[in-house]
Each structure stands twice: as C-alpha cells, then as structure tokens.
Amino acid sequence: MEEKDNLISLASILYRNRKRIILLGVVTFVVAAVITLLMPNYYKSTTLFYPTSEDLMKPEKIFGGSTTDLRFYGTDLEMDRLLAIAESPQVLDRLIDKFDLAERYGIKEGSRQWKSRLRNRLLKHYEVRKTRFDGIELSVEDTDPEIAAAMTTAAREIISGMASSVIRTAQGRMINALEENIREKEILVNDIRDSLRTLRERYGIFNVESQAEQFSGLITKLETDLQKERVRVETLASNPRIPRDTIAYLEANLLGMEQQYRFLTGEGETELTGLQRFNQGMGLVSMLENRFFRENNQLGFDRIRLKNTRAAYEAPYDAVFVIQEAVVPDEKSRPKRSLIVLGAVFGVVVFYSLGLLLLHSIDPAIIDRIRKESL
C-alpha cells in the first residue's frame, strides 16, 4: 500500500508540472530541429575488394616449374598487407594532396600541427574494415557525393598501387641480383673454357672417352701385333733359306713397331708422350669438363629465370580484385535528424522529470535551510 502511495505521489508531481515538461519538450524539439537543419549532409561512398595472390607475380607460378597450384585470391598475408597500407599515413597524405583537403576542411597549411589535424579530420570520414567474408570494405564520407565517390576510388587505387609497388620493388631487387650473378657466372664460364682449351692443347686431349677407348684399342692391338712380329722374325732368322734382305726388312719393321709402342706408352722416354701424357691430363680435363658443363647449365638456367622474372615484372598486375565499385551516393549517410531530435527531446524530458522527482523527495526543512544559507 505504501509503494502504491509513493507511485501516486510521483505521478502527481509530474502531472502538476506537465505544462513545464511539455513546454521544455517543445523548446528542445525546436532548438534541436534548428541545430540539425544547420548541420551539413554527409554522403558515404563504399567500395568492396579482395586481395589478389602474389602467385600472379611469381615467374615459377606463371610459366610453370612449381609443384603447387596457382592461387588467384590472396591469403591472410596479402589481406594484412592491404589493411596495413590502407591505414598508413601515406595513403591519407596522398588523398589530402590529390583533393586539396586543407582548403576543403578549412585548415591552413603551415599552421601549428596542420598535417596531423588534417589526417585526424580525414580519419573521421575515412573507414577501412575487414568484412566477415574476408573482403575489404573502404568508405569515405563527404558533403559532396561526387567527391566522396572520387575519394573512395582514389583511395582504393592508391592502396592497390602501393601494394603492387612493394612486390615490384622486391622483384626489381631480384632482377638486379640475377643480373649480377649472371655476369659473374659468365666470367667464370669463360675462365673455365680458356683453362680447358689450354689443358687440351697441352695434353692433346679433345675427347676423353673417345681417346681413352682409342688408346686402349690401339695399344692392345699393337701389343698383339708386336708379339706376333717378334716370333715371326725369330723364326725366319733361324732359317738359312730366308734371304738376309728379307730378314733385315722384317727387323726394321719390328723396330718401327717397337718405337711406335714406346711412343704410345712412354717407355724409355724422358718427355711425356702418348698414353702417359694422356693419363696425366685426363683427370684434369675431365674435372674441368664436368665443372664447365655444370656451370654452363646453371648459367643457362639463370638466364631463363631472369627472362621469366623480367616478363613477370613487366606484366600488368593489380593487387586487388574489385567486387563493388564506388558509386555516387544519392542518399545522405548522416546526420539522422529525426533520431537526433527525438533523442534530445527524450533526454531532456527524462532528466528534467528525474530532477523534479529528486527535488520533491528532499525534506522541505533541508530546502528551507539551503535557501536561508544562500541568502
């Protein structure tokens, strides 16, 4: 019963002051309406895009040679890069310069902290966020809808250009490194070629496998023929019926074969000849041939890699896939005048009513004491 009496008492207080409350609400409504009408209309333009994959700039992905499939859409790595670039001061500064926002926002260039003030002002109208579908939504507000759309498109293009520049810069460094490596490799291959030519001339080796097979077959045949010729000469020399001229001819022929054998094998020679010369140079020539083959093949591979990297570097590349272009908005994004006015009226009425109730809940003796002290 007491609670009911209290509620009736509170309602009575509000009812007795209903004219004041209504008047205050009307005044608040009028003032809030006038203020909101003086507020400029802002228009928001939005673009939606996805990051492209770095694979589209990798030569091994474009021209083959990779064991993994080519990806077209970027991963979290490309997404984070775009978000970091989008929120960087460089993007804001380029928008400020492109659209002369210092004059548009009424901030004098060269004034105290004018650059920071410009960035902070732009950030109030500039928003970048990651969507729940892993896209990037970029929005820009302005009092001119065409300027809002132009700034949104320009911001996206700046972000895409900066992201592409990061990858192209890395590729440019790779191209320079490949060019330097190829120059050094060409010098090395030429040095090996000259050394190989010198060794071949010194040891008379031009084809290790062919000459080794040729030497082996020739010496084996010569040894067999030499043995046969010795037996033949000894047999015929012991026969008195054979003329001495024939024996002398056979001995001379045997001597020639022995000299040929000694030349090939190097027996009894002070200088390297024949097989000894070949054997001594074969290892060096084979080693240089293998190294020349290996380095020359690597040089060819590096040239192909450089060619492909240059082709990928010069190919057109956009760091974003645009899903939604920025269009000129035909509806303002703010202010929501009706909500502002209703909120102001509701807030003032509620707080004024609470003040009345609080004031009437205070003991009248305390109020009289406060009045006397104030006098």
DSSP, total strands: 4
Task: Bin the helical content.
Answer: over 70%
Number of helices: 13
| Backbone structural class | alpha+beta
Unreliable runs: 268-272
The residue-averaged pLDDT reads 76
Short recap of the structure:
The chain is of the alpha+beta class and 375 residues long. The chain has helices at 2-16, 18-38, 59-62, 76-86, 89-98, 101-104, 114-123, 145-203, 208-237, 244-265, 274-314, 337-361, 364-374; strands spanning 43-51, 126-130, 136-142, 320-324. The protein is built from 13 helices and four strands.
What attributes does this structure have?
375 residues, 70% helix, four-stranded antiparallel sheet, single chain, alpha+beta
Describe this structure in words.
By secondary structure, the protein is of the alpha+beta class. Among the domains are: 1-38 and 338-356, no CATH class; 180-314. It is 70% helix and 7% strand. It is built from 13 helices and 4 strands. It has helices spanning 2-16, 18-38, 59-62, 76-86, 89-98, 101-104, 114-123, 145-203, 208-237, 244-265, 274-314, 337-361, 364-374, and strands spanning 43-51, 126-130, 136-142, 320-324. Strands 2-3-1-4 form a 4-stranded antiparallel beta sheet. α5 (89-98) packs across α7. The chain is rod-shaped and about 170 Å long. The two termini are 40 Å apart. Residues 268-272 have low confidence and may be disordered.
